[in-house]
């Protein structure tokens, strides 16, 4: 609800009564109550007619910052996010988490076909590319150290479980807070 509507209703005024009292058209009052922020002359006139400070008619910054659209679309830095699709892109790495080279191919293919190329998707894919580079290096180091078959197998299992944990933890965070828990300070894309 807009600040103007709250104040108008608190003072028991109809839109028509406020229009008559202020000299501002009913249509302008309706636009402001629908979400347009009053400026200049309109702001001063309405504030004077309602006998309040001009700042009381403006949307408080804390409320504007807290106003987040859940699930399907959110706007941040002029990017529109489809969180359902982002979650699918993140989870699509799961079946190939055991095979580092393939774990980022499916998300890239989905990103390209759906044209969902926002910063969150790029972070998801960059993280999987990073893991695709790091995991084989760790695996090779363990293999070259010749610690035995058990250590090589254990390393493979730990690396796979780590990747699965990262994917699932990011999925949980996307579901709850529309952000990633694990992310890099850089992007490969």
Automatic annotation (TrEMBL):
Cell compartment(s), UniProt: Membrane
Where would you find the membrane-spanning parts of this chain? 96-113, 125-145, 152-172
Q: What Pfam families does this protein's entry cite?
A: HTH_3, MamF_MmsF
This protein's record includes keyword Manganese: no
Q: Which residues form the HTH cro/C1-type domain?
A: 4-57
Give the bilayer topology: Multi-pass membrane protein
Q: Which PROSITE patterns match?
A: HTH_CROC1
Keyword annotations for this protein, in alphabetical order, are:
Membrane, Transmembrane, Transmembrane helix
Q: What is its main location?
A: membrane
Q: Does the keyword Transmembrane apply?
A: yes
Q: What is this protein called?
A: Helix-turn-helix domain-containing protein
Q: Source species, please?
A: Chryseobacterium zhengzhouense
């Amino acid at each position: 609800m807009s600040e103007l509507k709250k104040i108008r209703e608190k003072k028991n005024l109809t839109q028509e009564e406020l229009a008559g009292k202020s000299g501002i058209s009913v249509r302008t009052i309706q636009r402001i109550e629908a979400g347009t922020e009053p400026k200049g002359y309109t702001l001063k006139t309405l504030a004077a007619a309602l006998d309040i400070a001009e700042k009381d008619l403006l949307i408080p910054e804390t409320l504007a910052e807290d106003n987040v659209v859940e699930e399907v679309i959110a706007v941040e830095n002029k990017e529109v996010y489809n969180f359902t699709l982002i979650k699918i892109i993140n989870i699509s790495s799961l079946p190939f988490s055991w095979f580092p080279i393939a774990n980022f191919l499916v998300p890239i293919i989905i990103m390209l076909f759906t044209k969902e190329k926002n910063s969150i998707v790029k972070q998801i894919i960059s993280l999987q590319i990073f893991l695709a580079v790091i995991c084989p290096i760790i695996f090779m180091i363990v293999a070259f150290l010749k610690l035995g078959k058990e250590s090589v197998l254990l390393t493979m299992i730990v690396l796979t479980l780590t990747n699965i944990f990262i994917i699932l933890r990011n999925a949980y965070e996307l579901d709850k807070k529309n952000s990633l828990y694990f992310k890099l300070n850089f992007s490969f894309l």
